[in-house]
Amino acid sequence: MGSLDSNPASFDAFAADAEGFQPLNADDVRSYLHKSVDFIYDYYKSVETMPVLPGVEPGYLSQLLQSAPPNAAAPFDIAMKELREAVVPGMTHWASPNFFAFFPATNSAAAIAGELIASAMNTVGFTWQANPAATEMEVLALDWLAQLLRLPNSFMNRTSAGRGTGGGVILGTTSEAMLVTLVAARDAALRRSGSNGVAGITRLTVYAADQTHSTFFKACRLAGFDPANIRSVPTGAETDYALDPAKLLEIMQADVDAGLVPTYICATVGTTSSNAVDPVGAIADVAARFKAWVHVDAAYAGSACICSEFRHHLNGVERVDSISMSPHKWLMTCLDCTCLWVRDTHRLTDSLETNPEYLKNDASDSGTVTDLKDMQVGVGRRFRGLKLWMVMRTYGASRLQEHIRSDVAMAKMFEESVRADDRFEVVVPRNFALVCFRIKPRAGMTEEATEAANRELMERLNRTGKAYLAHTVVGGKFVLRFAVGSSLQEERHVRSAWELIRKKTTEIMSGEVSVQ
Protein backbone atom coordinates (compact mmCIF):
# COMPACT_ATOMS: atom_id res chain seq x y z
CA MET A 1 0.00 0.00 0.00
CA GLY A 2 1.30 3.43 -0.88
CA SER A 3 4.91 4.30 -1.62
CA LEU A 4 6.68 3.54 1.64
CA ASP A 5 9.54 1.53 0.15
CA SER A 6 12.36 4.04 0.56
CA ASN A 7 15.91 2.84 0.13
CA PRO A 8 17.13 1.51 3.50
CA ALA A 9 20.69 2.25 2.45
CA SER A 10 19.93 5.95 2.38
CA PHE A 11 18.61 5.94 5.92
CA ASP A 12 21.36 6.84 8.39
CA ALA A 13 19.45 7.56 11.60
CA PHE A 14 20.96 4.47 13.21
CA ALA A 15 24.50 5.02 11.97
CA ALA A 16 27.10 5.23 14.66
CA ASP A 17 27.74 8.81 15.72
CA ALA A 18 29.09 10.72 18.64
CA GLU A 19 25.65 11.46 20.05
CA GLY A 20 24.74 7.82 20.72
CA PHE A 21 21.25 6.32 20.89
CA GLN A 22 18.43 8.90 20.71
CA PRO A 23 15.08 7.09 20.60
CA LEU A 24 13.12 10.37 20.74
CA ASN A 25 15.18 12.31 18.27
CA ALA A 26 12.71 14.91 17.04
CA ASP A 27 13.59 14.40 13.38
CA ASP A 28 13.11 10.64 13.71
CA VAL A 29 9.76 11.15 15.42
CA ARG A 30 8.59 13.33 12.55
CA SER A 31 9.92 10.91 9.92
CA TYR A 32 8.45 7.78 11.50
CA LEU A 33 5.08 9.37 12.14
CA HIS A 34 4.88 10.74 8.60
CA LYS A 35 5.47 7.22 7.27
CA SER A 36 2.94 5.81 9.73
CA VAL A 37 0.33 8.39 8.77
CA ASP A 38 0.88 7.56 5.09
CA PHE A 39 0.39 3.89 5.95
CA ILE A 40 -2.85 4.67 7.81
CA TYR A 41 -4.10 6.82 4.93
CA ASP A 42 -3.42 4.05 2.45
CA TYR A 43 -5.01 1.49 4.76
CA TYR A 44 -8.29 3.37 5.06
CA LYS A 45 -8.37 4.04 1.32
CA SER A 46 -7.96 0.34 0.52
CA VAL A 47 -9.46 -1.61 3.44
CA GLU A 48 -12.80 -1.95 1.65
CA THR A 49 -11.16 -4.09 -1.03
CA MET A 50 -9.38 -6.42 1.40
CA PRO A 51 -10.89 -9.74 2.55
CA VAL A 52 -12.54 -9.01 5.89
CA LEU A 53 -11.37 -12.34 7.31
CA PRO A 54 -7.78 -13.32 6.46
CA GLY A 55 -7.02 -16.60 4.75
CA VAL A 56 -4.22 -17.60 7.11
CA GLU A 57 -3.63 -20.61 9.33
CA PRO A 58 -2.60 -20.58 13.02
CA GLY A 59 1.13 -19.97 13.36
CA TYR A 60 1.44 -18.26 9.98
CA LEU A 61 3.27 -15.21 11.33
CA SER A 62 6.16 -17.21 12.79
CA GLN A 63 6.90 -18.40 9.26
CA LEU A 64 7.25 -14.84 8.01
CA LEU A 65 9.07 -13.01 10.80
CA GLN A 66 12.30 -13.96 12.50
CA SER A 67 11.87 -15.97 15.69
CA ALA A 68 14.61 -14.26 17.72
CA PRO A 69 14.82 -10.55 18.56
CA PRO A 70 17.36 -8.64 16.47
CA ASN A 71 20.57 -7.56 18.08
CA ALA A 72 21.45 -4.81 15.66
CA ALA A 73 19.40 -1.74 14.87
CA ALA A 74 17.59 -1.51 11.56
CA PRO A 75 15.99 1.30 9.57
CA PHE A 76 12.35 1.99 10.41
CA ASP A 77 11.41 1.24 6.81
CA ILE A 78 12.24 -2.42 7.35
CA ALA A 79 9.67 -2.66 10.14
CA MET A 80 7.10 -0.92 7.95
CA LYS A 81 7.83 -3.29 5.08
CA GLU A 82 7.33 -6.33 7.32
CA LEU A 83 4.13 -4.77 8.70
CA ARG A 84 2.69 -4.49 5.20
CA GLU A 85 3.87 -7.86 3.96
CA ALA A 86 3.38 -10.07 7.03
CA VAL A 87 1.00 -8.44 9.50
CA VAL A 88 -1.67 -6.82 7.31
CA PRO A 89 -2.48 -10.03 5.40
CA GLY A 90 -3.26 -11.72 8.73
CA MET A 91 -5.55 -9.00 10.04
CA THR A 92 -9.29 -9.33 10.54
CA HIS A 93 -10.32 -5.90 9.32
CA TRP A 94 -12.67 -4.47 11.91
CA ALA A 95 -12.36 -1.15 10.09
CA SER A 96 -13.79 -2.65 6.90
CA PRO A 97 -17.21 -1.39 5.84
CA ASN A 98 -17.98 -5.06 5.13
CA PHE A 99 -17.56 -6.01 8.81
CA PHE A 100 -20.95 -6.92 10.33
CA ALA A 101 -19.85 -9.30 13.11
CA PHE A 102 -19.99 -8.85 16.89
CA PHE A 103 -20.47 -5.14 17.67
CA PRO A 104 -18.57 -2.43 15.80
CA ALA A 105 -15.27 -1.00 16.99
CA THR A 106 -15.76 2.54 15.73
CA ASN A 107 -13.05 5.07 15.14
CA SER A 108 -12.57 8.58 13.79
CA ALA A 109 -9.86 10.99 12.71
CA ALA A 110 -10.30 12.98 15.93
CA ALA A 111 -9.95 9.86 18.10
CA ILE A 112 -6.85 8.66 16.25
CA ALA A 113 -5.27 12.11 16.64
CA GLY A 114 -6.11 12.16 20.34
CA GLU A 115 -4.65 8.69 20.84
CA LEU A 116 -1.50 9.66 18.97
CA ILE A 117 -0.94 12.79 21.02
CA ALA A 118 -1.68 11.00 24.30
CA SER A 119 0.77 8.26 23.37
CA ALA A 120 3.44 10.82 22.54
CA MET A 121 2.97 12.59 25.87
CA ASN A 122 2.97 9.19 27.59
CA THR A 123 1.71 10.52 30.89
CA VAL A 124 0.92 8.27 33.85
CA GLY A 125 -1.83 10.15 35.63
CA PHE A 126 -2.44 8.04 38.71
CA THR A 127 -2.94 11.10 40.91
CA TRP A 128 -4.04 14.63 40.15
CA GLN A 129 -0.53 15.87 40.91
CA ALA A 130 1.02 13.31 38.54
CA ASN A 131 -0.82 15.08 35.73
CA PRO A 132 -3.45 17.71 36.58
CA ALA A 133 -4.50 18.22 32.96
CA ALA A 134 -4.98 14.49 32.31
CA THR A 135 -7.12 14.07 35.42
CA GLU A 136 -9.22 17.16 34.79
CA MET A 137 -9.61 16.36 31.08
CA GLU A 138 -10.98 12.93 31.97
CA VAL A 139 -13.37 14.44 34.51
CA LEU A 140 -14.52 17.04 31.97
CA ALA A 141 -15.01 14.50 29.17
CA LEU A 142 -17.03 12.24 31.46
CA ASP A 143 -19.21 15.12 32.60
CA TRP A 144 -19.78 16.15 28.98
CA LEU A 145 -20.82 12.64 28.01
CA ALA A 146 -23.02 12.36 31.11
CA GLN A 147 -24.83 15.49 29.95
CA LEU A 148 -25.30 14.05 26.44
CA LEU A 149 -26.82 10.95 28.06
CA ARG A 150 -28.89 13.15 30.37
CA LEU A 151 -27.64 11.33 33.42
CA PRO A 152 -28.74 12.88 36.70
CA ASN A 153 -26.41 15.31 38.44
CA SER A 154 -25.74 12.69 41.09
CA PHE A 155 -23.46 10.89 38.61
CA MET A 156 -21.39 13.95 37.73
CA ASN A 157 -18.11 15.22 39.12
CA ARG A 158 -19.13 18.84 38.68
CA THR A 159 -22.60 20.35 38.67
CA SER A 160 -23.89 23.89 38.45
CA ALA A 161 -23.94 23.87 42.26
CA GLY A 162 -20.31 22.77 42.55
CA ARG A 163 -18.70 19.41 43.16
CA GLY A 164 -21.11 16.47 43.15
CA THR A 165 -21.07 13.29 45.22
CA GLY A 166 -20.78 11.10 42.14
CA GLY A 167 -18.31 10.92 39.34
CA GLY A 168 -16.64 8.77 36.78
CA VAL A 169 -13.52 7.15 35.50
CA ILE A 170 -12.43 5.89 32.08
CA LEU A 171 -11.40 2.25 32.15
CA GLY A 172 -10.23 -0.19 29.50
CA THR A 173 -13.27 -2.44 29.19
CA THR A 174 -16.68 -3.24 30.62
CA SER A 175 -15.06 -6.16 32.45
CA GLU A 176 -13.15 -3.68 34.60
CA ALA A 177 -16.26 -1.60 35.25
CA MET A 178 -18.11 -4.68 36.42
CA LEU A 179 -15.21 -5.87 38.57
CA VAL A 180 -14.65 -2.63 40.47
CA THR A 181 -18.38 -2.13 41.14
CA LEU A 182 -18.74 -5.77 42.24
CA VAL A 183 -15.93 -5.24 44.73
CA ALA A 184 -17.55 -2.06 46.06
CA ALA A 185 -20.95 -3.77 46.33
CA ARG A 186 -19.37 -6.78 48.02
CA ASP A 187 -17.70 -4.65 50.68
CA ALA A 188 -20.87 -2.64 51.28
CA ALA A 189 -22.92 -5.83 51.70
CA LEU A 190 -20.38 -7.30 54.12
CA ARG A 191 -20.52 -4.15 56.24
CA ARG A 192 -24.31 -4.08 56.07
CA SER A 193 -24.61 -7.70 57.18
CA GLY A 194 -22.19 -7.21 60.08
CA SER A 195 -19.61 -9.61 58.68
CA ASN A 196 -16.22 -9.86 60.35
CA GLY A 197 -13.89 -9.21 57.43
CA VAL A 198 -14.73 -11.42 54.46
CA ALA A 199 -16.09 -14.26 56.55
CA GLY A 200 -19.62 -13.61 55.28
CA ILE A 201 -18.77 -13.60 51.59
CA THR A 202 -20.23 -17.07 51.09
CA ARG A 203 -23.69 -15.63 51.86
CA LEU A 204 -23.56 -12.90 49.20
CA THR A 205 -25.55 -13.39 46.01
CA VAL A 206 -25.43 -11.64 42.63
CA TYR A 207 -27.96 -11.58 39.77
CA ALA A 208 -28.14 -11.09 36.02
CA ALA A 209 -30.19 -12.31 33.09
CA ASP A 210 -28.93 -15.32 31.18
CA GLN A 211 -28.35 -12.95 28.24
CA THR A 212 -25.84 -10.88 30.24
CA HIS A 213 -22.35 -10.80 28.80
CA SER A 214 -20.14 -13.67 29.95
CA THR A 215 -17.62 -11.21 31.32
CA PHE A 216 -20.03 -10.55 34.21
CA PHE A 217 -19.77 -14.11 35.45
CA LYS A 218 -15.98 -13.98 35.14
CA ALA A 219 -15.87 -10.72 37.11
CA CYS A 220 -18.02 -12.27 39.85
CA ARG A 221 -15.49 -15.05 40.31
CA LEU A 222 -12.60 -12.59 40.35
CA ALA A 223 -14.40 -10.55 43.03
CA GLY A 224 -14.61 -13.65 45.23
CA PHE A 225 -18.29 -14.52 44.95
CA ASP A 226 -19.15 -18.18 45.38
CA PRO A 227 -20.10 -19.55 41.92
CA ALA A 228 -23.03 -21.28 43.61
CA ASN A 229 -24.40 -17.82 44.51
CA ILE A 230 -24.25 -16.34 41.00
CA ARG A 231 -27.82 -16.32 39.72
CA SER A 232 -28.33 -16.46 35.95
CA VAL A 233 -32.01 -15.61 35.58
CA PRO A 234 -33.68 -17.37 32.62
CA THR A 235 -35.26 -15.16 29.95
CA GLY A 236 -37.61 -15.95 27.08
CA ALA A 237 -39.43 -14.66 24.06
CA GLU A 238 -42.27 -13.33 26.22
CA THR A 239 -39.96 -10.52 27.43
CA ASP A 240 -37.90 -10.35 24.21
CA TYR A 241 -35.12 -11.98 26.26
CA ALA A 242 -34.97 -9.13 28.77
CA LEU A 243 -34.77 -9.69 32.52
CA ASP A 244 -38.20 -10.14 34.11
CA PRO A 245 -38.42 -8.05 37.33
CA ALA A 246 -41.11 -10.34 38.81
CA LYS A 247 -38.91 -13.39 38.31
CA LEU A 248 -35.94 -11.49 39.76
CA LEU A 249 -37.95 -10.54 42.84
CA GLU A 250 -39.03 -14.12 43.37
CA ILE A 251 -35.45 -15.42 43.19
CA MET A 252 -34.05 -12.70 45.46
CA GLN A 253 -36.76 -13.25 48.07
CA ALA A 254 -36.06 -16.98 48.05
CA ASP A 255 -32.39 -16.22 48.69
CA VAL A 256 -33.26 -13.96 51.61
CA ASP A 257 -35.51 -16.67 53.04
CA ALA A 258 -32.55 -19.05 52.80
CA GLY A 259 -30.35 -16.68 54.81
CA LEU A 260 -28.43 -15.22 51.89
CA VAL A 261 -27.66 -11.55 51.20
CA PRO A 262 -28.64 -10.10 47.79
CA THR A 263 -25.71 -7.90 46.84
CA TYR A 264 -25.57 -6.89 43.16
CA ILE A 265 -27.74 -6.88 40.06
CA CYS A 266 -26.41 -6.30 36.56
CA ALA A 267 -28.99 -4.84 34.16
CA THR A 268 -28.05 -4.67 30.49
CA VAL A 269 -29.12 -2.11 27.92
CA GLY A 270 -28.37 -3.90 24.65
CA THR A 271 -27.32 -7.50 25.28
CA THR A 272 -24.66 -8.98 23.05
CA SER A 273 -26.70 -11.80 21.57
CA SER A 274 -29.88 -9.96 20.63
CA ASN A 275 -29.74 -6.37 21.95
CA ALA A 276 -32.36 -7.08 24.60
CA VAL A 277 -32.97 -4.21 27.02
CA ASP A 278 -33.51 -4.97 30.69
CA PRO A 279 -36.06 -2.62 32.35
CA VAL A 280 -33.74 -0.43 34.41
CA GLY A 281 -36.35 1.34 36.55
CA ALA A 282 -38.28 -1.81 37.49
CA ILE A 283 -35.05 -3.63 38.36
CA ALA A 284 -33.96 -0.71 40.55
CA ASP A 285 -37.29 -0.92 42.39
CA VAL A 286 -36.72 -4.61 43.11
CA ALA A 287 -33.14 -4.00 44.25
CA ALA A 288 -34.24 -1.27 46.65
CA ARG A 289 -36.19 -3.82 48.68
CA PHE A 290 -32.95 -5.63 49.47
CA LYS A 291 -30.49 -2.70 49.38
CA ALA A 292 -28.65 -4.41 46.54
CA TRP A 293 -26.30 -2.53 44.22
CA VAL A 294 -27.61 -2.03 40.66
CA HIS A 295 -25.15 -1.66 37.80
CA VAL A 296 -26.27 -0.86 34.25
CA ASP A 297 -24.12 -2.30 31.49
CA ALA A 298 -24.82 -0.13 28.44
CA ALA A 299 -21.51 -0.92 26.72
CA TYR A 300 -22.88 -0.90 23.18
CA ALA A 301 -26.35 0.64 23.22
CA GLY A 302 -25.53 3.38 25.71
CA SER A 303 -24.12 5.41 22.82
CA ALA A 304 -27.55 5.44 21.17
CA CYS A 305 -29.01 7.07 24.29
CA ILE A 306 -27.47 10.41 23.30
CA CYS A 307 -30.41 10.48 20.83
CA SER A 308 -33.73 11.52 22.34
CA GLU A 309 -35.64 8.65 20.71
CA PHE A 310 -33.51 6.07 22.55
CA ARG A 311 -33.02 7.82 25.89
CA HIS A 312 -36.08 6.09 27.42
CA HIS A 313 -34.05 2.88 27.63
CA LEU A 314 -32.21 4.51 30.55
CA ASN A 315 -35.35 5.58 32.39
CA GLY A 316 -34.89 4.87 36.09
CA VAL A 317 -31.11 5.34 35.95
CA GLU A 318 -31.38 7.91 38.75
CA ARG A 319 -32.09 5.00 41.10
CA VAL A 320 -29.14 2.79 40.16
CA ASP A 321 -25.69 2.85 41.71
CA SER A 322 -23.49 2.74 38.62
CA ILE A 323 -23.62 2.73 34.84
CA SER A 324 -21.00 2.04 32.20
CA MET A 325 -20.85 2.44 28.43
CA SER A 326 -18.05 2.05 25.88
CA PRO A 327 -17.52 4.83 23.33
CA HIS A 328 -15.04 2.51 21.61
CA LYS A 329 -17.99 0.43 20.43
CA TRP A 330 -20.32 2.96 18.81
CA LEU A 331 -19.22 6.52 19.61
CA MET A 332 -16.27 6.96 17.26
CA THR A 333 -13.59 6.66 19.96
CA CYS A 334 -10.89 4.03 19.41
CA LEU A 335 -10.06 1.30 21.90
CA ASP A 336 -9.83 1.33 24.76
CA CYS A 337 -12.44 3.58 26.33
CA THR A 338 -15.11 2.43 28.77
CA CYS A 339 -16.79 5.13 30.85
CA LEU A 340 -18.00 4.26 34.34
CA TRP A 341 -20.12 6.58 36.45
CA VAL A 342 -21.07 5.96 40.09
CA ARG A 343 -23.62 7.79 42.18
CA ASP A 344 -21.31 7.91 45.20
CA THR A 345 -17.59 7.79 44.44
CA HIS A 346 -16.75 7.10 48.07
CA ARG A 347 -18.34 3.66 47.85
CA LEU A 348 -15.83 2.87 45.12
CA THR A 349 -12.76 4.55 46.59
CA ASP A 350 -13.37 3.03 50.03
CA SER A 351 -12.73 -0.37 48.44
CA LEU A 352 -10.02 0.54 45.94
CA GLU A 353 -7.99 3.35 47.52
CA THR A 354 -4.24 2.96 47.98
CA ASN A 355 -2.12 5.60 49.67
CA PRO A 356 1.57 4.67 49.75
CA GLU A 357 4.00 7.22 51.08
CA TYR A 358 5.58 7.90 47.69
CA LEU A 359 2.23 9.03 46.25
CA LYS A 360 1.22 11.34 49.11
CA ASN A 361 0.91 15.01 48.21
CA ASP A 362 -0.88 18.14 49.37
CA ALA A 363 -3.47 18.13 46.59
CA SER A 364 -4.58 14.58 47.36
CA ASP A 365 -4.59 15.24 51.10
CA SER A 366 -6.78 18.31 50.62
CA GLY A 367 -9.70 16.21 49.37
CA THR A 368 -10.43 18.74 46.62
CA VAL A 369 -9.14 16.64 43.72
CA THR A 370 -9.95 13.27 42.21
CA ASP A 371 -7.19 10.67 42.18
CA LEU A 372 -8.44 8.29 39.52
CA LYS A 373 -6.14 5.48 40.65
CA ASP A 374 -8.62 4.92 43.47
CA MET A 375 -11.46 4.08 41.08
CA GLN A 376 -9.73 1.27 39.20
CA VAL A 377 -7.86 -1.99 39.76
CA GLY A 378 -4.38 -0.80 38.91
CA VAL A 379 -2.49 2.36 39.74
CA GLY A 380 -0.94 3.43 36.42
CA ARG A 381 -3.31 4.76 33.80
CA ARG A 382 -3.31 6.11 30.26
CA PHE A 383 -4.46 9.54 29.11
CA ARG A 384 -7.73 8.15 27.69
CA GLY A 385 -9.72 11.30 28.34
CA LEU A 386 -7.98 13.22 25.55
CA LYS A 387 -9.34 11.19 22.64
CA LEU A 388 -12.88 11.14 24.07
CA TRP A 389 -12.79 14.91 24.57
CA MET A 390 -11.39 15.42 21.06
CA VAL A 391 -14.24 13.38 19.56
CA MET A 392 -16.92 15.42 21.34
CA ARG A 393 -15.11 18.74 20.82
CA THR A 394 -14.54 18.11 17.11
CA TYR A 395 -17.84 16.55 16.03
CA GLY A 396 -20.30 17.91 18.57
CA ALA A 397 -23.49 16.23 19.70
CA SER A 398 -25.26 16.76 16.37
CA ARG A 399 -22.72 14.84 14.28
CA LEU A 400 -22.53 12.00 16.81
CA GLN A 401 -26.31 11.72 16.85
CA GLU A 402 -26.34 11.76 13.04
CA HIS A 403 -23.88 8.84 13.05
CA ILE A 404 -26.08 6.78 15.41
CA ARG A 405 -29.28 7.52 13.49
CA SER A 406 -27.66 6.66 10.16
CA ASP A 407 -26.57 3.25 11.45
CA VAL A 408 -30.02 2.53 12.87
CA ALA A 409 -31.63 3.52 9.57
CA MET A 410 -29.36 1.14 7.65
CA ALA A 411 -30.15 -1.68 10.07
CA LYS A 412 -33.86 -0.99 9.65
CA MET A 413 -33.42 -1.14 5.87
CA PHE A 414 -31.68 -4.51 6.19
CA GLU A 415 -34.40 -5.80 8.52
CA GLU A 416 -37.08 -4.82 6.00
CA SER A 417 -35.20 -6.68 3.26
CA VAL A 418 -35.04 -9.80 5.41
CA ARG A 419 -38.76 -9.65 6.20
CA ALA A 420 -39.59 -9.19 2.51
CA ASP A 421 -37.87 -12.47 1.57
CA ASP A 422 -40.00 -15.41 2.66
CA ARG A 423 -36.94 -17.66 2.94
CA PHE A 424 -35.84 -15.80 6.07
CA GLU A 425 -37.19 -14.73 9.43
CA VAL A 426 -36.19 -12.06 11.94
CA VAL A 427 -35.85 -14.02 15.18
CA VAL A 428 -36.16 -11.19 17.72
CA PRO A 429 -37.39 -7.61 17.29
CA ARG A 430 -34.62 -5.31 16.12
CA ASN A 431 -33.22 -2.96 18.71
CA PHE A 432 -30.74 -0.27 17.67
CA ALA A 433 -28.54 -1.44 14.77
CA LEU A 434 -28.46 -5.22 15.20
CA VAL A 435 -30.62 -7.63 13.20
CA CYS A 436 -30.85 -11.28 14.29
CA PHE A 437 -32.13 -13.41 11.44
CA ARG A 438 -31.92 -16.87 9.92
CA ILE A 439 -33.02 -19.05 7.06
CA LYS A 440 -36.34 -20.21 8.41
CA PRO A 441 -37.23 -23.90 8.49
CA ARG A 442 -39.13 -25.18 5.51
CA ALA A 443 -41.79 -27.84 5.74
CA GLY A 444 -40.42 -30.93 7.41
CA MET A 445 -37.08 -29.34 8.43
CA THR A 446 -35.89 -30.11 11.94
CA GLU A 447 -34.21 -27.52 14.11
CA GLU A 448 -30.93 -29.39 13.59
CA ALA A 449 -31.28 -29.15 9.80
CA THR A 450 -32.18 -25.46 10.07
CA GLU A 451 -29.08 -24.83 12.16
CA ALA A 452 -26.94 -26.67 9.63
CA ALA A 453 -28.31 -24.54 6.80
CA ASN A 454 -27.60 -21.33 8.68
CA ARG A 455 -24.11 -22.43 9.66
CA GLU A 456 -23.44 -23.22 6.03
CA LEU A 457 -24.72 -19.80 5.02
CA MET A 458 -22.47 -18.04 7.52
CA GLU A 459 -19.42 -20.04 6.48
CA ARG A 460 -20.03 -19.41 2.78
CA LEU A 461 -20.48 -15.69 3.39
CA ASN A 462 -17.34 -15.38 5.47
CA ARG A 463 -15.23 -17.41 3.04
CA THR A 464 -15.91 -14.89 0.29
CA GLY A 465 -14.01 -12.19 2.16
CA LYS A 466 -16.73 -9.79 1.04
CA ALA A 467 -18.61 -9.80 4.37
CA TYR A 468 -18.14 -11.04 7.90
CA LEU A 469 -21.06 -12.10 10.09
CA ALA A 470 -21.12 -13.84 13.46
CA HIS A 471 -23.79 -15.99 15.10
CA THR A 472 -25.48 -16.57 18.42
CA VAL A 473 -28.12 -18.84 19.92
CA VAL A 474 -31.38 -17.23 21.05
CA GLY A 475 -34.17 -19.31 22.52
CA GLY A 476 -32.45 -22.48 21.35
CA LYS A 477 -32.24 -21.19 17.77
CA PHE A 478 -28.98 -20.72 15.88
CA VAL A 479 -29.21 -17.24 14.33
CA LEU A 480 -27.00 -14.89 12.36
CA ARG A 481 -26.18 -11.48 13.76
CA PHE A 482 -25.94 -8.56 11.32
CA ALA A 483 -24.47 -5.59 13.19
CA VAL A 484 -24.37 -2.29 11.34
CA GLY A 485 -22.01 0.40 12.57
CA SER A 486 -18.48 0.16 11.19
CA SER A 487 -17.24 3.73 10.79
CA LEU A 488 -16.76 3.46 7.01
CA GLN A 489 -20.10 1.76 6.35
CA GLU A 490 -22.55 3.24 3.88
CA GLU A 491 -25.91 2.08 2.62
CA ARG A 492 -24.28 0.49 -0.43
CA HIS A 493 -22.28 -1.88 1.78
CA VAL A 494 -25.41 -3.05 3.57
CA ARG A 495 -27.21 -3.58 0.26
CA SER A 496 -24.23 -5.45 -1.17
CA ALA A 497 -24.09 -7.71 1.88
CA TRP A 498 -27.80 -8.46 1.54
CA GLU A 499 -27.40 -9.39 -2.10
CA LEU A 500 -24.53 -11.71 -1.16
CA ILE A 501 -26.69 -13.33 1.52
CA ARG A 502 -29.48 -13.90 -0.98
CA LYS A 503 -27.07 -15.36 -3.53
CA LYS A 504 -25.46 -17.78 -1.08
CA THR A 505 -28.86 -18.83 0.25
CA THR A 506 -30.00 -19.64 -3.28
CA GLU A 507 -26.87 -21.75 -3.78
CA ILE A 508 -27.52 -23.67 -0.56
CA MET A 509 -31.17 -24.32 -1.36
CA SER A 510 -30.35 -25.49 -4.88
CA GLY A 511 -27.52 -27.69 -3.68
CA GLU A 512 -24.78 -25.79 -5.50
CA VAL A 513 -21.15 -26.03 -4.46
CA SER A 514 -19.85 -22.69 -3.20
CA VAL A 515 -17.53 -20.89 -5.64
CA GLN A 516 -15.54 -17.94 -4.37
TrEMBL record:
Protein name: Aromatic-L-amino-acid decarboxylase-like
Superkingdom of origin organism: Eukaryota
Family, similarity comment: Belongs to the group II decarboxylase family.
Lineage of the organism: Eukaryota, Viridiplantae, Streptophyta, Embryophyta, Tracheophyta
GO molecular function ontology, one term from the record: pyridoxal phosphate binding
A single GO cellular-component term on record: cytoplasm
Biological source species: Panicum miliaceum
Keyword Lyase recorded: yes
Protein's GO biological process: amino acid metabolic process; carboxylic acid metabolic process; phenol-containing compound biosynthetic process; primary amino compound biosynthetic process
Entries under SUPFAM superfamilies matching the protein: PLP-dependent transferases
